[in-house]
């Protein structure tokens, strides 16, 4: 089983800040939503939607980073356990790419 790979602290901190902002905005909207009218309501809605979009983007970026690190770790483990297979695969890929480039 693979160990959990830590990601950049800044990315996690930013995501947590974004999520806290979304929660605070949601709570404020629930408390004061009925008293907002017209332009105030539009501004509050736009701010809330922006916070949600930022949190979603941060979460997606964090997931990509974690998956990339997990793939790199798995590749590293495989290469360390099977060095000659890795060399053979690398040589075969290089040969195929060389042939494809030479055809053009």
From TrEMBL:
It is found in: Cell inner membrane. Residues 13-63, 75-104 form the DUF883 domain. It holds the Pfam family DUF883_C. The keyword Transmembrane applies. Keywords: Cell inner membrane, Cell membrane, Membrane, Transmembrane, Transmembrane helix. Its main location: membrane. It is a single-pass membrane protein. InterPro entries: DUF883_C, DUF883_N, YqjD/ElaB. Belongs to the ElaB/YgaM/YqjD family. This is YqjD family protein.
């Amino acid at each position: 089983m693979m160990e959990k790979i830590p990601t950049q602290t800044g990315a996690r901190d930013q995501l947590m800040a974004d999520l806290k902002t979304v929660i605070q905005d949601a709570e404020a909207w629930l408390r004061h939503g009925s008293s907002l009218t017209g332009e105030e309501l539009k501004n509050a809605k736009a701010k809330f939607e922006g916070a949600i979009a930022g949190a979603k983007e941060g979460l997606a970026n964090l997931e990509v980073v974690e998956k990339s690190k997990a793939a790199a770790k798995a590749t590293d483990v495989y290469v360390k356990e099977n060095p000659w297979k890795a060399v053979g695969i690398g040589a075969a890929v290089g040969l195929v790419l060389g042939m494809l480039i030479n055809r053009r």
